[in-house]
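User: Can you predict the 3D structure for this chain?
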Amino acid sequence: MIGQVSNGSRWGSFGANAACVVLSTAFAGCGDSSKAEAGASRPVSSGSHITASEARPAAVAALVDLTPPRRVPEPTARERIGRAIFFDARLSNPPGVSCATCHDPDKAFSGNHGSTTGVALGSRPGHFARRNTPSVLYMKYVPVFHFALEDDDDLVESPFGGFTWSGRADSVAEFSRLPLLDADEMNNGSEGALLTKLRDASYAGDFSHEFAGALDAPAPAVRAVGEALQAFLTSDAMSPFSSKFDDFLRGRARLSPLEMRGLRTFESPGKGACNACHVVYDTWNRPEASLFTNFGYDALGVPRNRAVTANADPNHYDLGLCERAQIRVRSSSPQWCLRFRTPSLRNVAVRDRFMHNGVFSKLRDAVAFYATRSTNPNLWYPSGAKFDDAPPKYRRNVNGVSLPYNGTEGAAPVLNDEDVDAIVAFLQTLTDQPYRSRTPP
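Assistant: Here is the predicted structure, written as structure tokens:
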């Protein structure tokens, strides 16, 4: 039932300006966004068009099959070094925790190091990361943090991009140093301590060859580590596009009736309206266009995760985007408090936990929350106070205007139980090939 414990959106539709920012990494330009909203056919190649349907015509499938198969090139020397660093469990204090410990390759590079609280266990007992661990797949498509108009007729710019839930870093290289030096994560007390470990690493020779002089001093060593990890995490191998849905886009697979219903409900502006933030273009045969995020920020008002140790303090809150910088910048304005970056839903079905605070352990619960937060708040806020993970003075920031968040308490939700089940079935088609065996039935 829905009452057990998708992304609605405050944006309404993914605007042309923001779309150009995201898709410019893969496409030469952007078309009229209104066509995408209407589900119009999109260009594929040589001026041809395809339209998604439950069973694509053989001629269309044959056309799409002419697309050269996606081939991942051999890793570069820098990518190999980055991969070695990513899996090096000696780079924590005490040793035993690597980047891959939390970003587990068996879980689509997400996970929480065995923690059952919703946030990752660090290298020391009793120490936990602040937020749920996101997947590091598809990072090559994340734009730097910026403000932009969501649509041509918008008057106020909105925040997009950046790495981490609150956009704290503008590059993978900058992002990668955060857990290495965080006392609650990998706990390297200083850049010098990390340098000592790098000098003793089995790949130190290759590291020195690729980054000449980097092992001479702490600062260049840490900078080189970031560059190596960036090379690995943004490599083609880390953006596989090998899910059932990707094959569907290419005309090589069919969605089941339940999965197709889920897709249509996910896209419906009168039902889920999920793709307003979790962007999908189901009429393009280019999976790169469907990253299932607009890289924007939203305040969902998710329930407080009382299993998180820090939340034992009733005055402890994670304010999200407005904490992004230590100096006052536009994102520091109180209007951005409680907003967190919209994650990609690719491989969402194999994650251990959901939402920035890891409050949900089941995908269905997360989807049901979107469906009934406004109509049945008692299901989600046992304390009786709506938006109980937010200081009262910021609760007005929580999105209550976009569907399905704009329902009236006590009214029937726009998504019923069957709709929720269908969306979950569709989301399971977003699991890449190596992880499909981990997708729950």
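The first helix runs from residue 16 to 23. The domain at 1-70+241-441 is CATH 1.10.760.10 (Cytochrome Bc1 Complex; Chain D, domain 2).
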